[in-house]
Write a structure and sequence with these properties.
Two copies of one chain form a homodimer. Chain A is an alpha/beta fold. Chain A folds into three domains: 165 residues, NAD(P)-binding Rossmann-like Domain (Rossmann fold); 108 residues, 6-phosphogluconate dehydrogenase C-terminal fold; 68 residues, Alpha-Beta Plaits. Chain A is built from 14 helices and eleven strands. In chain A, strands 2-1-3-4-5-6-7 form a seven-stranded mixed β-sheet, with helices on both faces. In chain A, a hairpin with a 7-residue loop joins strand 9 and strand 10. In chain A, helix 7 crosses helix 11. The N and C termini of chain A lie far apart (56 Å). Chains A, B: InterPro entries: 6-PGluconate_DH-like_C_sf (IPR008927), ACT-like_dom_sf (IPR045865), ACT_dom (IPR002912), NAD(P)-bd_dom_sf (IPR036291), PDH_C (IPR046825), PDH_N (IPR046826), Preph/Arog_dehydrog (IPR050812), Prephen_DH (IPR003099). Chains A, B: Pfam families: PDH_C (PF20463), PDH_N (PF02153). Chains A, B: Belongs to the prephenate/arogenate dehydrogenase family.
Chain lengths: 364, 364
């Protein structure tokens, strides 16, 4: 790939343009908001000059509602050899392109993709060539997708140092409904229960609810777009969850009974649900995309002064131990905190000994 | 308080006994499992010798099902001046004590409490005097509770360096249903959806679902006990959540409609839910028990070698910046990672500059 056209210079478009430019690809930038395109160019993402001919690859990174229309216009103009989009739901663009009467021969040169990169901010100023590093980037070729276009996409993904995952478009949309869209709404619904809760109750929030509701703080506008593009699979999953929720209520009501036999049945039902949850949680991949490693956790008490964490990590480094994960537990109304260090099981006792030796107070 | 009797030398009983002993209180330890009591004594939590008379304070730290029976026996024996339990649900013990025909005059000397301390392991060997530091410790005096017993409890909480919170027993049980028991079951239900999911779908799990399902890995036995003691309030909350879930399904189905007016209504409904979630999330207290501070996040790319985190924290420490929270984002199939550092807004730009200067690659 030597030339590319990036349409839409927000966070995603500008980030991938930066990665391509860094690898020597000539990138032409277009955005309905010409200021955004100029900003992206000034950051080194490419040029706002028109390509003046057919480019190797056109990448459409516009808001979901404009993806199909933009692709259709580019295809009609024969703007590129291959065409990609980066929208977070894949069924829509293809269906719309077909509905717009796109020539099937040209449609072979379109490939739907979805880089699963985090976004805390938006716009070209938030862009970075490293945005996609290590994240999955889903490619959804149809049966007749041009192999050359698939290879262009793989080249783009490699330039961005992402991890390509090939999936059927429908399977992708079901998968993100399961692992992203449904959990988002459930987190929202749990957090919504706190909206009018008593202050005293809210004071008792611990790390559990803090984790469950973290993503409930997400930007509504972004999530309306995402959910609007994938409502069916998400609704189906919430329906299934609703059945399990009904079962949870049923067995909890049995636990309220005065009859020991009914209470026992309730306890069994609760256990069944909790064990299914254990089994599902065990499937969530940990670091490096592997099955979750059984890390050991070491809890260290720290004061809230600058440098305390640095000293812990320096001491762990000196002991030659790699910290796989860190969690800081927040103390209520106090300056002290608890740091949970996750390490490989074989490293745990050595690290604990090294930290104790250096005067850290460990919690068993 | 000069003498105490701790009945039940598991994690909680042994931990508070260690804290009391450290403050010069003579602590007598009893457990149905005499080995557990001896282990606690050998750790310095007190003595297994019988008090040989009335102690100042008896603390019952036995499994929930045995709390009321143990308290009733102690009250009958006039074993102490004041009596506490530490069970995680408060309505049950008092109701059972009344049902057991406890003399109301003696019942005034019982106070139900709940230390909200984390427990990853159990048993006396996991105990530490610091277990309760900075955590809320709920005290639930009844209208006629002896003030002297309340003061004994406040002294115990102070010795354990916990933060006392006085609440009505019923309000406590509703509050923990809301901020702990309901979120636990919801996390379980989301994780359960993954139990039989396709491998490819599970590979796409990101930090969002990882956070939502973290507590789904909890020990079923512990949660059966907790939920059995508080089934009514939890079931009521799940019922209310179920109604919101039904509303979520309804508005998602509208988004599937071919009619623009219905789709617009669906989008409005989704936005309403997302905004309620935003509002609820904003109430979850952050560190130091305050309302959540608006920290700024700085994202730093690191390799997976030992010492990388140490270098970051050392560099932050040198810049005089206190890291309020850390989150490591796991990259799929790659050795590189992304570390999110949360810092006070006024410290953010200085830290970013200091880290860049020292060669770190920051993600905007």
């Amino acid at each position: 790939m030597r030339t590319a056209l990036v349409v839409g210079t927000g966070l995603i478009g500008t980030s991938l343009a930066l990665a391509l430019t860094r690898r020597g690809v000539t990138v032409h930038l277009v955005d309905q908001d010409t200021d955004a395109a100029r900003t992206a160019a000034s950051l080194g993402a490419g040029t706002t000059e028109s390509p003046g001919g057919t480019v190797d690859l056109a990448i459409v990174a516009v808001p979901p509602a404009y993806v199909a229309g933009t692709l259709a216009a580019l295809l009609r103009a024969d703007a590129a050899h291959g065409y990609l989009d980066v929208a977070s739901v894949k069924g829509g663009p293809r269906r719309e392109l077909e509905a717009l009467g796109t020539d099937p021969e040209r449609l072979r040169r379109y490939l739907g993709t979805h880089p699963m990169a985090g976004r805390e901010r938006s716009g070209p100023l938030a862009a970075t060539a490293e945005l996609f590093e290590g994240s999955p980037w889903v490619l959804t070729p149809a049966r007749d997708t041009d192999t050359e276009v698939l290879n262009q996409a793989l080249e783009l993904v490699a330039h961005c140092r992402a991890v390509p995952v090939v999936m059927d478009g429908g399977a992708h949309d079901s998968a993100v409904a399961l692992v992203s869209h449904m959990p988002q709404l459930v987190s929202t619904l749990v957090a919504a229960r706190l909206e009018h809760a008593d202050d005293t109750a809210v004071r008792l929030c611990g790390q559990g609810i803090r984790d469950v509701t973290r993503i409930a703080g997400s930007d509504p506008a972004m999530w309306i777009d995402i959910l609007s593009a994938n409502p069916g699979p998400v609704a189906d999953l919430l329906d299934a969850l609703g059945e399990d929720l009904g079962e949870a209520v049923r067995v909890l009501r049995l636990l309220e009974s005065a009859e020991p036999a009914r209470r026992a049945e309730g306890a069994q039902g609760v256990e069944r649900l909790l064990r299914r949850g254990n089994a599902g949680r065990a499937r969530v991949p940990g670091k490096h995309g592997s099955t979750p490693a059984a890390y050991e956790t070491i809890a260290v008490l720290i004061s809230d002064r600058p440098g305390e964490l640095a000293r812990i990590f320096a001491d762990a480094g000196r002991a030659g131990v790699n910290i796989e994960d860190v969690r800081i537990e927040h103390a209520t109304g106090q300056q002290a905190g608890l740091v949970q260090l996750s390490v490989a099981p074989e490293a745990a006792s050595g690290l604990a000994a090294a930290l104790r030796e250096r005067g850290w107070s460990l919690r068993a």
